[in-house]
Amino acid sequence: MPIRLAVRAVILHEDRLLLVNAWPDGISDLWGAPGGGAEPGTGLPANLVREVAEETGAAVDVGAPCLVNEFHDPATGWHQVDVFFRCRLLAPPQPGWRDPAGIVTRWAWFARGAFGAIRWKPDCLPAVAWGSEAAAYDPLEPITR
Prior knowledge:
Elements: E1 4-13, E2 16-21, E3 30-31, E4 35-37, H1 44-56, E5 59-73, E6 78-91, E7 106-111, E8 119-120, H2 125-130, E9 136-142
Parallel strand pairs: 1-6, 3-8, 5-9
Antiparallel strand pairs: 1-2, 1-4, 2-7, 5-6
């Protein structure tokens, strides 16, 4: 099975981070950065602009990469590499927005202090979002639901 490449947006606005829940029918309470699979023949920033718009209705300007994360499902062999980019918000997420693919079920802004009350992946996301590192790597780990 080939490795899937995906892009993710680290969007800080008013000192809050935009996260999505991408588990249809509420099967998980796990939050993550908006984004998704990269389409061949399209650059990573353009893929990310599309994915953020699809999942939240927001518009972003894509900046520098800040994190590479990878995870896999040992039971199926599925393996994904996510490239996270710092993004600047151009237009906010739209209330009542529905992901056309039905994958993202909700989005929300989280202050740094709220991360003790939610589950998120990758583990280093808050440190990357509020940190000043140019880029980080989060090693391979099994998928979490």
